[in-house]
Amino acid sequence: MPREFSRTLRVGEQIRRELADLLRTEIKDPGMGMVTVGDVEVSKDLSHARVYFTVLGDAQVAAASGKALSRASGFLRRELGRRMRLRVVPALHFVFDDSELKGARVDALIEEAMRSDRARGQED
């Protein structure tokens, strides 16, 4: 019977939880906004982890937060090694996740289209 979750998924989820706690309690960089870790994708050999994050704010806050996270990646990687006791701690690559912004834009476009259809229906 195959395993329900692969090791990379389990390690990625554990990294996500630990990073969220580290960002909340340990990182005091003023350049970093309110960061939320959305997902972590770990490579099969556990050498790299792509960390998707979102921030509360605009594109400038996101860029500043991305730079702050990159600066703190060495510290975060060391702390992950202490907390998780992995033989190889993945290199952390931070990626801004703009899917929420795109989703809000699509919702606004749909709402606008529905309003124009209603207006056109009332004219006829």
TrEMBL record:
It is found in: Cytoplasm. GO terms for biological process: maturation of SSU-rRNA. Coiled coil: none annotated. One of its GO terms (molecular function) is ribosomal small subunit binding. InterPro entries: KH_dom-like_a/b, RbfA, RbfA_dom_sf, Ribosome-bd_factorA_CS. Transmembrane segments: none annotated. It comes from the Bacteria. One of its GO terms (cellular component) is cytosol. Pfam families: RBFA (PF02033). Gene3D superfamilies: 3.30.300.20. Keywords: Cytoplasm, Ribosome biogenesis. One of several proteins that assist in the late maturation steps of the functional core of the 30S ribosomal subunit. Associates with free 30S ribosomal subunits (but not with 30S subunits that are part of 70S ribosomes or polysomes). Required for efficient processing of 16S rRNA. May interact with the 5'-terminal helix region of 16S rRNA. Monomer. Binds 30S ribosomal subunits, but not 50S ribosomal subunits or 70S ribosomes. Belongs to the RbfA family. This is Ribosome-binding factor A.
